[in-house]
Every structure is written in C-alpha cells, then in structure tokens.
Amino acid sequence: MAILNRKKKSLEISSTDASENAIANKETEGLSQRQIVFKRFVRHRAAMISVFTITFLTIFVFTALNFRIGPWHIHGWWKYGIGDIPELRYKDCPSGNVGCPTLSIRPGFLGGKHFGFGEHPFGQDDIGRDYFALVMKGAQRSIMVMFIVGIIGGTIGTVVGAIAGFFRGTVDAVLMRFTDFIITIPSIIIGSVIGFHFGNLGATFLAFYLGLFAWTGLSRLVRGEFLKLRELEFVDAARVAGASNRRIIFKHILPNAVGVIIVSVTLLMSGAILLETALSYIGFGVVAPDVSLGLLISQYQDSFTSRPWLFLYPGFFIIAIALSVNFIGDGLRDAFDPRQRRRLSLKDRMSGRTEKKGE
Amino acid sequence: MANPVLSVKDFTVEFWVDGVWYPAAVDMNFDVEAGKVTAIVGESGSGKSTTAMGLMSLLASNARTYGSVKIKGEEMIGAPASTLRKFRGKEVAYIFQEPMTALNPVYTIGFQIVETLRTHFDIGPKEARVRAIELLTMVEIPDPEKSFEKYPHQLSGGQRQRAMIAQALACDPALLVADEPTTALDVTVQAEILDLMRGLKSRLNSAILLITHAMGVVADMADDILVMKDGKVVEAGTADAIFNRPQHPYTKELLAAVPKLGHSAKRTLTFATLTKPAPVLTLSDVTIEYPKRGRIPAFTAVKNFNLEIYPGEIVGLVGESGSGKTTVGRAAIGLIPIKAGKLVIAGTDISKATQKDLSAIRRHTGIVFQDPASSLNPRLPIGESIGEPIFLAGIAKDKDLNHMIEDLLDQVELPRSYRNRYPHELSGGQRQRVGIARALALTPDLLIADEPTSALDVSVQARFLELFQGLQEKLKFACLFISHDLAVVDILSHRVAVMQDGLLVEEGDRDAILKNPQKEYTRRLIEAVPVPDPAEQAIRRAARLAKKI
Q1: Do domains B34-58+87-257 and B281-364+444-518 have the same CATH topology?
Q2: What's the average model confidence in pLDDT over B233-251?
Q3: CA distance B173 to B209
Q4: Whole-number mean pLDDT of chain B?
Q5: A99: which of A77, A299, B55, B389 lies 20 to 30 Å off by Cα?
Q6: What is the mean pLDDT of the segment spanning B330-347?
Q7: Confidence grade of residue A358 (pLDDT, cut at 50, 70, 90)
Q8: Average pLDDT over residues B288-306
C-alpha cells in the first residue's frame, strides 16, 4: 500500500498536445509506419530466428558449389561438384552399406569422433556422387524457385487485384471470374502439366510457369484491400488534386496495401517450395540430370530403411526453408496488424514504472 | 449526500504502454445520487470514458485501477468477477455512443432485451417477452410488438439508441452510465432522446452518469458537473455554478469556445462592383442519383436543387444526416456526376463532364474533408500531400514547390518543419489545417468544406474557425460550408441553405434563415439545438414540449 501511495503522489501528467487517444498512441509516438512495423517484427521471436536461419542457409548453400554468373566463375568452398564421381566408400560403413555419411557432430567424450565434416558428410549416392553437393544444389534450386514464384506471382497478383479493386464494375467481374476459373483447377494438376512440358527446360522455367498460376489468392486479397482503401477520403483528395488513375493506384493506394502484399507473398513463397518438391517427387518437376530436393527424396524413398541419410538430409533442408519462410510471414502479418497487441504478462505489470512529471 | 448510489474515492486508472504506466484518470472523487444526473465533460483524451468504463472494471487488460468505487455501498475495485457480473447490467447499465456497434447485428432487439432479463431474473421466455415489449413501449419505439422482432439494421439511428436504452433499463438499474449517448445522432433526434432520458430518470428514480463533450447536452441534462482535463477533475460543482460562475481558467476557456447560435456579429458581403459578379458555382435544377448496383435500385439523393455562390461568399449548407448535403458538395467539385440539371463551376459547364473539363476545374476548386484521419494519405509526408495539387498542375517543381509548400504551411499556422512529418504524428486539429493548406494550394475560386469541424474538440474547433475565417477574408474564395452544426454555420456564413431529404427547404440570408425561419423544418432544426446555458435551455425545452402537446 505504501508503494501505491508513493506512486500516486508521483502521478503528474505532462501537458502535451492533447491529441485523441493520447495514451493508445504512446507506443507509436513519433514513429513512421515502417519503424512501427519493424519494432513489432523484431519482437516476434520465431520470425527473427527464421530471418537469421534463412539468411545463413542461403549464403551457406549458394557459396558451397562452383557458381557461374555471366563470364565469372566463382569457386565454391566445397571440394566436390555434382558432376564429380569420387570412389564409393564401403570399408568403414556399418552393416555392409555403401556411401555412408561421415558427418560427425557427436563430441569425443560421448564415444563419437571429433566434430567434422569428413570426406562425404551426407554420404554418397549409388554411383558415388557426393550427396552433400547434391543437397546443396537441390537447396539452391528450391530457394531460387521460391523467389521466382514469389516475384512473378506477387507482381501479377498485385496488378490484377489492384485493377479489379480500383475500377470495380465490369473490369472487376471479368478479372475475378478469370481468377476463380484458375482457382478451380487444382494446383497439383497445373503443376504436373507444366512440369511435363517444361520440366526438362530446368528449374528456372518451371518456377516461371508456376509463378504464372500462383497469384490467385494474392489478387483476391489485394482486391479486397483496394475496395476498402478506394473509399477513403485521401483518394478523393488526390482526385481533386488532379491525379490520374495510375497515380492514384500506384502512388496513393498501393503503399497503403503493402502490408497485405508482403505477408501473402511470403506465404505464397513457402507454398511454392512445397509445390516444387511435390512435383519433383511425383516426377513432373525438375528432372535429371538437374537436381532438386524433391527429386532426391523421390529417387531414394526406397532406401529409407537401409540408408536413411539419403532421405533425411534433403528432407531436413525442405523443412528448414519452408518453416523459416512461414514464420517470417507470420511475423510480418502480426507486425502489420495494428490489432495484434502483445499480452501483458505479470512480469510486465510488476516491472512497469509510473510516468513522472517532466519525462 | 445522504446515501449516494455511486461513490467514487481517489479513483485512478493507469495504462501500461511499453513498460511505463501512464495515468488516464487521476484521483477522481465524486458521488452520484438517485434521481440526479452527474455529467463528466471534457475534450477527447481527457479520460472521461476511461473513468466510466473503469467503474465496472470493463477496461482492457493493460489497465490497472485503484482507489474505491462503491455502488450501493459495495466495493467494486478488486471485487471478484462473479460479484462484478451480478452488478453489471443489474445495478449498473451502460448506453454507448454508437448504437449500431453496441447492438449485436445478428439478433433481434427483442432477443437481446430478453437475454438481459433472463440473465438476471428467474423468469420464463413468455414473461420476459411481455416485459421487453413493456420496455420498448416505455422508450417510445413506434409499434413495439413489431419492433421486438426487428434486427438493429432495420431501425433508424434514433430508434436503435432507444432500443439500447430499453435494454439498459431492463433490470431497473440503480445507475445508468451514458457514454456520449447522443453524439452520433442528429439534433432533432438528440433532443428526443434527451427528453426520453429525463423522463425516465424521474420515473425510475435512477442515477445517471452522463459522459459528453457537448456543453449544450450538459446544460440540458445535468444537475452536477465535473470538468476533466488530462485525466484530472479541474472543477466540480452544480450546473448553475459551472455555467454561470466558472472558476477554473480551463472551464472558462471551454465555455467560451462553444459556438452559440445567434450570438455572432453580422457578416455582410460587399461586392467591388455595384452589380453582382458572375457566380462561381451555379447549380440549377440539379438531380443526383446513385446508380443501381446489382439488386439495389437506383437512389435519388438530391432532387431539383438550386443554388448559386458568388465570389467571396460563404454559403452554409445545413441539414440532418442523409439529407444529401455531402452529395451536393461532392457533385459541386466534380467527384459525382449529376443526372439532370445544369452545373457550372468557375465558368465551366460540367453537367456532362468529360475528363478534360474535369481537369480544367481542378485548378479552380479545393475541398476540405470531414475526417482528418482518413483524408491524408498515411504513407505520404504532409509536405508532399500539400504540394501534390501544385505538382500535378505543373505549376512548380523542386525548389519552387518547396517554397510554395512552406508558404502554405505558414498560412495555416503550422511550423515549416512539419512538412516531413507523417499524418499520424499530428493531432486532429493540425491534420485538418493540413487539409485546408492542400485545398488552398492552387488558390481556388471555390472551396468546398464538408463538415471540417465535426471531428474536432470545441476548443480546437474554435481555433480552426478563426483561422478559416481569417484565410477567407484574406484570399476571398467562395465557399460552400457543409455542416450539421447550426452554430458553426452561424459564425461563418453569409448565406444559409437548408436541406431535407434531398430537397432544398429554404435558402437566404443568414439572419433571415436563422433568426426568422419561414419553414417548419428549419424552425424545428433550430429549436432542437441545445444551448449551453441551463436556464435558457429549460425555457426552450418547455416551449418545445408545449408545442408537442
């Protein structure tokens, strides 16, 4: 009680500009929209871990193998490429297996070897190719597919949704019925057809065509957002100022819808990885000699009992990438949604200090 | 103070934000007696609603309260949830500002009243229904039997508020907390609701805690008044004392800021030449229709409307909500096409406007919107918002544009440094001034002001009106000032036009219309405006009731 009394005495309100909801706005005072979103995003623990994971994985995976950008050859830090066929190991493998992994993460005092990659950390495939190199290549493909689908699907979805939502009427009806039409075709069938025709052109082409069909959900969301925003008075104000439709759409409304777009594009991207994997798994996606994680899994699904590493390592990378992107999407959604309030824990309650005069 | 229904002692509410407890209401002390109305007045953010909600621990989870709140002698602060539930609805009932959101749209109003009744009393559905219809009759809803089965969206705003009151009164509460009960309503409906509440108070002998920012409503209802500012009670006393002998400077300021109908100086307009110049805006026989959409038939919002505005003149357009004021304003700037009639803006006939005609009139017109929160693009710094019309008209670029923006900010008395701020960093009044600066960017001949002050506090409104008047006298633009607040129109305008249901009721000189209205509707509108003076308000009320009988 004494503490309460002391606190009460110190209660004095600084006479700031008496704006509405002064207290509700305290948290966002003097911050731009971007800063507010960033602050909330950083508070989302899973999303922050995912950001670091995905950054680390991308760098790790893309620097592992030899890489060619135009005339430059960049040497990867891993000694094997996917074309090398070293001798198949069989001597020190347990129970008569061949090509077992040499990766050791169990420290010496627990009966294992010292930490180390060894010669073939993820083992070797049937003909002796280094499985680590294959997995790295596959992960590169997955990440690339993810970004290409995200960019193409995101662009088409945003433009279609923006035009439908802004102009309404006939334009809206035509575009949205077209969207509905595409939605009714199951994505796995679209993917199979695309994969069947373009899979042999490589993962880039596959991703490009997948992107052409991945925008439907996003365009609906963007349309909804535009329908809401176009009724706001600042749009009328822009029109009275003499702004053209294009300027209103891209300069005035689109920046206000960016939250919705970013969030659903991230979720779209994580879906794209799984779609590519699924397609490769059923044989319609990336085809040999190219490599993808789904393809690796499908090739060695029979060896799950005898040589599980051929199945587990690519699987681990799929899960790590898809999960990270999903968590980032979740974090962004929470950060953009002003209604998402952090719950007040007892600790917060106790530790909160009372505002004093002159602060 | 023999036995107050509500007794509040040292009551404090604080909110937790980012590790700091910010006080929202501090050391409140007051009592409310049965059959009396205690009003809490103050501007937005002063903590009046927070206090009302805090009484029954209805605040969000990031709030904490201490002190003492006793209802009929029982302590509410720190009471277990079961006790609070027993008191909520039964002993303390709330009426909220927005009846559409306070009533559940998927249930009939009858169902909602019956629910309240059956939660607190052990009665069957049939008896509850009888009692609910009794309540609806008491709040004077037309045809209570039928209204019982109606959903909230089928009722008008005033009827919804009556249904809310019926629900609140279901259990004969000892205390009725009315949080801005009439803010969302038109003046004529407001007057009816206030009459109803006063009648119920004397009939049921319950105590009323009235939360409002409208001084007129307070003068009409309150016995005792608390004036709040920044979470503190700055002055408390009887209605008579507060209105006639205010002590605290803030109370005086607040009372002075309230615009009073029929007290402003005469405004005459002299034209430079003897003959009247050509009007800036001409609407003749204008009909505006919202086209049919799907199964919703076309709706005629404005019919055969005639109005002319001359250079340098402010014309006030008044009417209740739904009367078509805003539609006229939007058509007058080319945002909505007209269906029939002739519309000429600054010499350009845009009755059948093409895109080219419209871009021609953009340079001569400007508009100030109602809602300062949504009329500025939240992603653009305000400097860019203000400069946009100039930039798009191709008048100035880069450096010249910057100078012009700075001049405009000076004109509306905002610091130049504000140009890089975003709208959310500004208060409502400041945002509305940015809105004016943008509207005046091209020095228009015609300015449409669509309820620019209705979202502002009275003291902010007073400053805004002063600034607006000054600018108008300096720049001499013609202005169509749309408002539902007759007192504001009285201060500003030279001429007044009154609208009802899309029709022009009456139009003429300000004094002619406001002091000596010819039409019944105008008269009713003027009589319903509450005056911030308890004595005068009592006389007006008596006169109004006498006429009703």
Answers
A1: yes
A2: 91
A3: 12
A4: 86
A5: A77
A6: 87
A7: very low
A8: 83
Specify the CATH superfamily of domain A45-58+138-336: MetI-like (1.10.3720.10)
Mean of pLDDT values over A241-248: 89
A-B contacts (CB, under 8 Å): 140
Q: Do A355 and B375 count as a contact with CB atoms less than 8 A apart? A: no
CA distance B173 to B91: 4
Domain ranges in chain B are 34-58+87-257, 281-364+444-518, 381-442
Flag if A30 and B232 touch (Cβ within 8 Å).
Answer: no
Residue type, B378: P
Q: What are the structural domain ranges in chain A?
A: 45-58+138-336
**CB proximity under 8 Å: A 40-99 to B:** none
Q: Between A4, A24, A255, which is nearest B379 by CB?
A: A255
pTM confidence score: 0.79
d(CA A352, CA A336) in angstroms, rounded, equals: 25
Homologous superfamily (CATH) for B281-364+444-518: P-loop containing nucleotide triphosphate hydrolases (3.40.50.300)
ipTM of the complex: 0.78
Measured distance CA(A165)–CA(A319) in Å, rounded: 36
Q: Of A49 and B349, which is predicted with more confidence?
A: A49
Cβ of A241 within 8 Å of Cβ of B428? The answer is no
Query: What 3-state class would DSSP assign to A309?
Result: helix
What gap in Å lies between CA B406 and CA A244, rounded to an integer? 25
CA-CA-CA-CA torsion sign (A303, A306, A312, A314): negative
- Summarize pLDDT for A156-191 with one digit per residue, the tens: 999 999 999 999 889 999 999 999 999 898 877 887
Task: Please return the burial class of B169, using the count of CB atoms within 10 Å of its CB with bins 0-12, 13-18 and 19+.
Answer: buried
- Domain B34-58+87-257 is of which CATH architecture? 3-Layer(aba) Sandwich (3.40)
User: CB contact, 8 Å: A34 with chain B?
Assistant: no
| A8·B12 Cβ contact <8 A | yes
CA-nearest of B247, B226, B238, B239 to B28 is B226
**pLDDT tens for residues B461-483?**
888 898 999 999 888 899 999 99
- What pLDDT is attached to residue A180? 93
- Per DSSP, chain A holds a count of helices (H) and strands (E) of 14, 3
CA B88 to mean position of chain CA atoms: 28
Q: Contact at 8 Å (CB) between B224 and B38?
A: yes
Q: Above pLDDT 90, what percent of chain B?
A: 17
CA B459 to mean position of chain CA atoms: 14
From the CA of A351, how many Å to the nearest CA of chain B?
Answer: 7
Asked if residue B11 lies in contact with residue B40, where contact means CB atoms within 8 angstroms, the answer is no
> What percentage of chain A has pLDDT greater than the value 90?
18
DSSP-assigned letter for residue A124: B
Number of Cα atoms under 13 Å in the Cβ half of residue A337: 12
Residue B361 vs residue A4, higher pLDDT: B361
Q: What pLDDT is attached to residue A51?
A: 93
Category of A299 on φ-ψ map: left (φ > 0), alpha (ψ -120 to 50) or beta: alpha
Q: Which residues contact A140 (CB under 8 A, 6 or more apart)?
A: A61, A62, A65
Cα distance from B135 to chain A (closest Cα, Å)?
36
Instruction: Name which of A234, A345, A346 to mutate to probe chain B: the one with the most chain B Cβ atoms within 10 A of its Cβ.
Output: A234
B377, closest residue in chain A (CA to CA): A234
